[in-house]
Amino acid sequence: MVHIGNEWDTLLADEFNKEYYLRLREFLKAEYSSRNIFPPMNDIFNALRYTSYSDVKAVILGQDPYHGMGQAHGLCFSVKKGVQPPPSLQNIFKELNADLGIQPPSHGELTAWAKSGVLLLNTALTVREGQANSHRGQGWEILTDRVIELLNERTQPIVFILWGGNARAKAKLITNRAHLILQCAHPSPLSAYNGFFGCRHFSKANEFLVKNGIQPIDWRLT
Predict the structure, then answer these.
(1) Angstrom distances, CA of residue 132 to CA of 24, 54, 75, 87, 191
(2) Helix 87-100 to helix 201-211 angle, to the nearest 10 degrees?
(3) pTM over 0.85
């Protein structure tokens, strides 16, 4: 069964034994044995693995993993070093530069953000090659909604960063007034000019954390 290696194992233990997840598991077995599925099986839970429950300062919600060969590795919007950053990620780096003056890195791997307290969570954690949203509705959303609900229960403030309609639909799960919700258009080239550029979510997140006595996120990538 699933072994994440931190607090999430205990917090999600009941979920991994529920009927919906057992059905999802059987679906994934068939998919991974017959098709190209991303990310690699061992990377599916990297978002939770890199950012334990108590360490979460901010959450960035994505939709589903990149569906091109060699791109997805379990963190939303992130690609491993050596892989060309996709257009949405390039736009994220443009906004980061405009907001905080941080120069775009030479790669697109966001693992350092995850280790700095940013949970980089997709709402569906797997996808078929070349078929966006192909694992939507198979059960992942039930699990990732539970992750959001558990974070909502935390007393220590968290920043929820919701880009695009899919992510913004999750705002209804965030009812704890201790937390901050930042939302705007998706960073994809189709919508980035409709409110993503100029959103200043990186600095706003850190201002909120500092105001609440929490160490700000280091958004630099080296």
Answers:
(1) 18, 31, 16, 15, 17
(2) 60
(3) yes
Q: How far is CA 28 from CA 8, 11, 144, in A?
A: 21, 22, 16
From 158, 167, 159, 157, select the one nearest 196 (Cα to Cα). 167
Task: Extract the runs of DSSP E, i.e. beta strands, from the chain.
Answer: 37-38, 58-62, 118-122, 127-128, 159-163, 180-184
Q: Which amino acid is at 135?
A: H
Active site residue 99: no
Per residue in 19-49, pLDDT (tens digit) is 999 999 999 999 999 999 999 999 999 999 9
Cis peptide before 39 (omega within 30 of 0): yes
What does the block give as tokens for 98? 């405009």
Evaluated on CA atoms 75, 78, 81, 84, the torsion sign reads positive
Contact assessment for residue 113 and residue 120, using Cβ atoms and an 8 Å cutoff: yes
How confident is the model over 125-180, as pLDDT tens digits? Answer: 999 999 999 999 999 999 999 999 999 999 999 999 999 999 999 999 999 999 99
Closest CA to 55 of 209, 211, 174: 209
- 64, 99, 145, 218: which is the annotated catalytic residue? 64
Write down the number of H helices and E strands in the chain: 9, 6
The SS3 call for residue 131 is strand
